[in-house]
Amino acid sequence: MLDELARHFPLAGCRGETVRRINDPFHLAAECHAIGIPFPEITLARPSDPEGWLAKRVGGSGGLHVRPAAGVEAGEGTYFQRRIEGGNVSALFVADREGARIVGFSAQWTSPSPKAPHRYGGAVRLTDISLEAGERIGQWLSELSRRNGLLGLCSADFKLRDGVWTLLEINPRPGATLDIFDSADAPLLAAHIAACRGERAPLPAFRDSMAAMVVYADGEIASFPRMDWPDWLADRQPPGTRIRAGEPVCTIFADGDTAEDARMELTRREARLKEMWSITTSEKGGRK
Questions:
Q1: Per the count of CB atoms within 10 A, which of 148, 173, 272, 284 is most buried?
Q2: Does residue 15 fall inside a structural domain?
Q3: For residue 240, is pLDDT > 60?
Q4: In terms of domains, do 184 and 127 share one?
Q5: In terms of domains, do 191 and 233 share one?
Q6: What residues contact residue 77 under an 8 Å CB cut-off, 6+ apart?
Q7: Looking at the record's lineage, which domain of life comes first (predicted)?
Q8: Which long-range contacts (CB under 8 A, 24 or more apart) does 132-135 make?
Q9: Which long-range contacts (CB under 8 A, 24 or more apart) does 72-79 make?
Q10: Residue 77 in domain
């Protein structure tokens, strides 16, 4: 689709060839080996002992495609990656022909469900990444960008444990953390388009933290009620929508002086929101 679009219009982002390369885990593994970036062991064949391995789908996103390797058979589009322990940290960056500029780092967490144990939950903007680590990650991403033609807003997912950063994947597009890094003073879309034009626009700078999370339905809602939504959310479900258990209802946001403060406020807002729609739905007899 990207190849076809590029035949007719200027493409504001990575070209199809770049997406194919960077989404190929074996190509990325080879690139990381050449540059000296830690990367997990991967294989197309199902490990004889699947304990400690994950099954992933090439090009998958949002964690819905990640499963324990046990019980998963090898097949087209599936590969196996050794599980790496540690915290989930993502780097949002802007790539151009000269390299990569990091917008910021975020910690991510999952919202497990029975069918998707690694389902994306949310992310919080970090303020405590050391200058040394930031420079090292910036050098890695600059080298990957130049070698693979990355362009515009992209993100890199890492595991961080005891100061060791292990790259898991590169998302050759604006990622899920975009909202917690955007700024009216230095809009990220402007930086993205400028990079695609061979220009440079200023990037936002932060001292505090912001967090965002997807709120999923705990149970089925036959007809979502009409609500007076707070102003700290987005992606709202329209009235009358049938929502199955585990489906997303909205995305919520919260600010804080630190990442911990922002996450605590998110938790309070999630509880308040679920109480609001639960009461409204019960009054209208919409819940099964």
A1: 148
A2: yes
A3: yes
A4: yes
A5: no
A6: 57, 58, 59
A7: Bacteria
A8: 133/163, 133/165, 134/102, 134/105
A9: 72/46, 73/46, 74/44, 74/45, 74/46, 78/44, 79/25, 79/26, 79/42, 79/43, 79/44, 79/55
A10: no
Confidence band for 280, pLDDT divided at 50, 70 and 90: low
Average pLDDT, the chain: 90
The whole domain housing 255 covers 209-284
Helix/strand/coil for 187: coil
Lowest mean pLDDT segment, chosen from 61-70, 201-210, 217-226, 228-237: 61-70
Together in a domain, 168 and 254: no
- CA angle, corner 136, sides to 135 and 138, nearest 5? 65
Are 36 and 129 in a shared domain?
yes
Asked if residues 249 and 276 have their Cβ atoms less than 8 Å apart, the reply is no
Query: Residue 254: which H helix or E strand, with range?
Result: strand 248-256
For residue 96, what pLDDT is reported? Answer: 94
Helices (H), 23-115: 25-35
Number of structural domains in the chain: 2
Alpha-carbon gap, residue 73 to 79, rounded angstroms: 10
Is residue 199 predicted with pLDDT exceeding 60?
yes
Last residue of a domain, one of 167, 196, 225: 196
Q: In the structure, what pLDDT confidence band is assigned to residue 57 with cuts at 50, 70 and 90?
A: confident
DSSP symbol at 223? S
